[in-house]
């Protein structure tokens, strides 16, 4: 039995922080694979700044030399109303029935679940395992404690909390803004992705 982490984001573009985070989580949690899952561009709550094709190409370029990393376009191909984390996790548990599958997320998303902002939240929490990364000094233990759904399903293995050394905040938004305003974000993302963005003139203002 292996251990697989599902790492979803817009990856618009993928950054060195995404890669470093995935590598660190894989190392600390002894994951055999990390699946990079670009989110659907059809979602109402997110607006992509470039096309699915470009996001997918940059992701492939970024992870090509790491055998632990896999790209999966499952959510990209879904209709917006079918893109819920509960359904996504059911898909990957069926795809990898002999492995332990974890959902990797930031503590900010844990807060959103505690605040009742996620659909199918109880089904999601009760049937999955999570790797939660520190964000913005959020107290993850208190977040779990104050939420009936989270605390009542916390069986000791449900949530793997990583609260040390994962606080780099350089974001895709920061990098897009640098490209748009004539900045120089070269070493914040993989060289191949940097060259791809320049070649295709992505994120220009």
From TrEMBL:
GO terms for molecular function: nucleotidyltransferase activity. Keywords: ATP-binding, NAD, Nucleotide-binding, Nucleotidyltransferase, Pyridine nucleotide biosynthesis, Transferase. It comes from the Bacteria. Gene3D superfamilies: HUPs. The keyword Transcription does not apply. Its EC number is 2.7.7.18. Pfam families: CTP_transf_like. InterPro entries: Cyt_trans-like, NadD/NMNAT, Rossmann-like_a/b/a_fold. Pathway: Cofactor biosynthesis; NAD(+) biosynthesis; deamido-NAD(+) from nicotinate D-ribonucleotide: step 1/1. CDD domains: NMNAT. Residues 6-177 form the Cytidyltransferase-like domain. It catalyses: nicotinate beta-D-ribonucleotide + ATP + H(+) = deamido-NAD(+) + diphosphate. Coiled coil: none annotated. Catalyzes the reversible adenylation of nicotinate mononucleotide (NaMN) to nicotinic acid adenine dinucleotide (NaAD). Belongs to the NadD family. This is Probable nicotinate-nucleotide adenylyltransferase. It comes from Fictibacillus nanhaiensis.
């Amino acid at each position: 039995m292996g251990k697989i982490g599902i790492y979803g984001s817009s990856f618009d573009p993928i950054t060195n922080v995404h890669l470093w985070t995935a590598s660190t989580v894989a190392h600390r949690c002894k994951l055999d694979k990390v699946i990079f899952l670009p989110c659907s561009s059809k979602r109402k709550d997110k607006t992509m700044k470039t096309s699915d094709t470009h996001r997918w190409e940059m992701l492939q370029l970024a992870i090509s030399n790491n055998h632990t990393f896999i790209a999966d376009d499952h959510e990209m191909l879904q209709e917006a109303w079918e893109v819920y984390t509960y359904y996504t996790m059911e898909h990957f548990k069926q795809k990898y029935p002999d492995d332990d599958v974890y959902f990797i997320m930031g503590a900010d998303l844990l807060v959103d679940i505690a605040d009742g902002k996620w659909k199918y939240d109880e089904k999601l929490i009760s049937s999955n395992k999570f790797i939660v990364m520190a964000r913005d000094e959020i107290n993850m233990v208190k977040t779990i404690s104050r939420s009936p759904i989270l605390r009542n399903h916390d069986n000791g293995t449900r949530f793997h909390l990583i609260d040390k050394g994962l606080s780099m905040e350089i974001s895709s938004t920061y990098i897009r803004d640098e490209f748009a305003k004539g900045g120089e974000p070269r070493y914040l993302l993989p060289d191949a992705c940097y060259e791809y963005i320049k070649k295709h003139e992505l994120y220009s203002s």
